[in-house]
Amino acid sequence: MDAVPxxxxxxxxxxxxxxxxxxxxxxxxxxxxxPWWAVLLLAGLYAxxxxxxxxxxxxxxxxxxxxxAFLLPPPAAALVALPGALLSPVPRRPFGxxxxxxxxxxTLAVWAAACVHWRLDGRDAxxxxxxxxxxxxxxxxxxxxxxxxxLLDGGILALADRxxxxxxxxxxxxxxxxxxxxxxxxxxxxxxxxxxxYGPVAAxxxxxxxxxxxxxxxxYHREQAAHQATIRALVQAVDIKDGYTRGHxxxxxxxxxxxxxxxxxxGERVETLxxxxxxxxxxxxxxxxxxxxxxxxxxxxxRRVIELHPEYGHEMVRGIRFxxxxxxxxxxxxxxxxxxxxxxxxxxxxxxxxxxxxxxxxAFDAMTSTRSYSRARxxxxxxxxxxxxxxxxxxxxxxxxxxxxxxxxxxxxxxxxDGMSALPAAPSPGLDEGARDSVGKGAP
Length: 444
Known about the structure:
Blueprint: H1 6-24, H2 36-55, H3 62-71, H4 74-87, H5 95-119, H6 122-127, H7 135-160, H8 165-168, H9 172-195, H10 199-204, H11 207-241, H12 248-262, H13 267-279, H14 289-292, H15 300-306, H16 309-317, H17 326-332, H18 353-367, H19 379-389, H20 396-409, H21 431-437
Helix pairs in contact: 1-5, 1-7, 2-3, 2-4, 3-4, 3-5, 3-9, 4-5, 5-7, 7-9, 12-13, 12-18, 12-20, 13-17, 16-17, 17-18, 18-19
């Protein structure tokens, strides 16, 4: 949204107008133990919680919003979201437009949740309380809340960030439903205690375990940020040393993720494979720069020096515990299925799976990127070469996974060095090219 297109601004204006209409339907609240002071208290509580949550990088305090949806008529419940959404910090410009968007989005989501809850007589189930029936309208309200957020988020992705329409909504609902359902359960507990003889003070106690969870999540976020900073520093050092392959590490990380996703690996392993792809060449820091940037063929002695880079890299990262199996990929991504690779000549299944994934991703990006001594090959030609070498150099399962992933998502090759207007044609794949780029593109 930094440079927001006119159509996205119009979309935000339309959503804000619909939210305003929902708020204008506000009438004096009926006598259902939800007077104006309750609206003000919940709105203030949400605003305070939102400021704390945003400052700790833990998102939005949905339990208070959903408690409002369970306690108040729809227009009044929608009003609870306004102060917090308008006052909470936003990460980037344009600040005003982002605040309006957030306020309109949450207003409509809470309004929809409250409408569903009241239509299913959820108010009476909360007042009684009537369990387990109270879970039914509350669950339906949570679904409505999540669905509205998903629809609006997908629209802004398509219009502001120019994400293709077929991908804008993909996975949004499934990723957000579980955490919002947990927040909805906390909101229901707040609503029941609010209406109980213990009153609103007891309802606020529900937020205490949420605060503990926020603190733990904030600690996790800081740890992840430190991990990312460590990896970013290592990759930047490699890019500075070998400018001809700048961007190569990130692309290998992306291709490794695509393969891992296609193989059905869980989210944690996919992230580990991304780290493996990004860091596979970190051992270049131990290789003389003149060899990395040499335009001509490598001598046998120079080749042996470059072939030490997996061991250098493993030595650098073996003490970084969060990398897990990515460390094995750094060490073994030049092993070949037939045992002719390096540094240890492992063969077949003795090569770690992570290394077999990175080997394919590494070779693919090297073949589809322009270097100081070769032009980029078309994606189709690179895949044909990978398939030709499958079973000898590369794991056929990893090659097939990459082919399927590229057919589904595509690939945008990049030029990774400057001033290459007069490059030679791509040579036939061989060990010189493989050693230089940390890639073996084809059988020797």
